[in-house]
Amino acid sequence: MSEYKLASKGKGKLSFKGEKSSKKKKKRKAEESFEEEGQQEGWIFAQTMSDLVGPLYLIFNSEPLCCLHMSEKDRSINIQPLQNQNLAMVEPENVNCVFVGAQIIGNPDHISLKTCDGKYLSSDKFGIITADKEAIGPQEEWIPIIREDGIALQNSYERFLSVDEIADGGYKLRADAETIGFCETWRVKCQARLKKKQKTAKIEDKPARDFEIEQIKKYQTWGGGRVKATGEDISELKKAKKEGNFNEALLDRREKMKADRYCK
């Protein structure tokens, strides 16, 4: 069953700006539980990988604001200017602006983005964007790079989804940028009611060294049960956390330890 059909039933229903929410009487315990879980209405900014699973609204923070959009006429993917120019308050007004994110099985760091007609957002080796595939292949996989100023999407050719302004004042969508800049950074919103509550402590609330040890225990399959941490200065991890590339720094340190092992 399509994500959009599932979303039309129960708590997963897509909400659009201007729609009135129907209020139902509930028992006090249910209301308290709802408040404790931090459930909200509307659309909020995605901040973690788990937020990128479900309906998503991809906004380009230009002047004027624009969003990723599927044309009803020819089903092409383009950039559409928005009437509401308040980034914090803007919400999707129709389903053509909503893409359903899903983690790739066996590769949780990658996601797919499905349009409302069940096709997947795709990028070829030339950076051309389409959405006409009904199945997921390498060209339909995207790697989200989460930063403080937004989220960049990298394709299987290690290029980034980018927006370029063209001569007539419009915008052109491509996926051939080699680095992340303003044009490659998207502000992604998810539905507040579907945002998963984090059961574990947030990365930023844990000391960098403690989190590194947890990751080593999780991924290290060699060493006879011993936990071997890198002897490098922990200040590198603290700096990476501030810059928004903490996970990448952890991966680099783990890979270096494995490489050192084979050099001995």
Explain what you see.
This is 13332_t:CDS:1. With 264 residues, the chain is α+β, with helices and mostly antiparallel strands. The protein has 2 domains: 3-194, Trefoil (Acidic Fibroblast Growth Factor, subunit A), CATH 2.80.10.50; 203-263, no CATH class. It has helices at 3-7, 28-36, 208-219, 235-243, 246-263, and strands at 43-45, 54-60, 66-70, 77-81, 99-104, 107-114, 120-123, 129-133, 143-147, 150-154, 160-165, 171-177, 187-191. Strands 1, 2, 3, 4, 5, 6 and 13 form a 7-stranded antiparallel beta sheet that branches. Helix 4 (235-243) packs antiparallel against helix 5. The longest helix is centred in the last third of the chain and has 18 residues, at 246-263. It is globular. The N and C termini lie far apart (53 Å). 25% of the residues are buried.
In short:
Helices cover 20% and strands 27% of the residues. The chain contains 5 helices and 13 strands. It has helices spanning 3-7, 28-36, 208-219, 235-243, 246-263, and strands at 43-45, 54-60, 66-70, 77-81, 99-104, 107-114, 120-123, 129-133, 143-147, 150-154, 160-165, 171-177, 187-191.
